[in-house]
TrEMBL record:
Keyword Transferase set for record: no
Ranges for domain Response regulatory: 7-123
Signal peptide bounds: none
GO molecular function, one term: DNA binding
Domain of life: Bacteria
SUPFAM superfamilies according to UniProt: C-terminal effector domain of the bipartite response regulators, CheY-like
Domain (HTH luxR-type): residue spans on this chain: 144-209
Identification of the protein by name: DNA-binding NarL/FixJ family response regulator
Keywords: DNA-binding, Phosphoprotein, Transcription, Transcription regulation
Annotated positions of the 4-aspartylphosphate modification: D58
GO biological process per UniProt: phosphorelay signal transduction system; regulation of DNA-templated transcription
One Pfam family recorded for the sequence: Response_reg
Keyword Phosphoprotein: yes
Organism taxonomic ancestry: Bacteria, Bacillati, Actinomycetota, Actinomycetes, Streptosporangiales
Amino acid sequence: MPEHPLRLMIVDDHPVVRDGLRGMFTGLPDITVVAEAADGHQALALARSERPDVVLMDLRMPGLDGVGAIERLRADHPDIRVIVLTTYDTDADVSRALSAGVAGYLLKDAPREELHQAVRTAAAGGRVLSSSIHSLLVDRLAPGPAPATAPTPRELEVLRLIAKGASNKEVARALLISETTVKTHLKHVFGKLGVDNRAAAVVAAMERRLI
């Protein structure tokens, strides 16, 4: 257990959902809910004042939606880890969220214990996907042929950081390269793995044991 409890913020426009989620974390010695927000704008304000370690973020909210809030949070507070918690599992929603740099994507029917562990995993730098989301991404990859050329070691370095939820800017800073170079590496990776976005590239690399 960490020396100090993990600080969690819940973002959802439905009060009953926020109440239910808060109840799921009540009493845990290693996680404490420090803030609740009803939309993306409120989440950004509370992130500045409360500095949560992890955010559970709904996708579809009035005003600033989940993806917009995630992009702003990642830019302003790169250390805050965001887990999407939603009822929507369409390909478009998943791709937009993962491309924004989330640490996880879970559905609202996730069991209590899965939510607890997801917050811990995200705070530790890992990524979490619900089984249905993982299957969706794998199914998208299934028809694709095996890559004729394997990614280079540098391309795999980029992909490993992307798998941890890093943005292009964070990858560039970590590897001491430009964001343009990061985008070029990713373009090459997409072509070699037969995919068209970051999320699918991560899953493809994991399935083929490249990362």
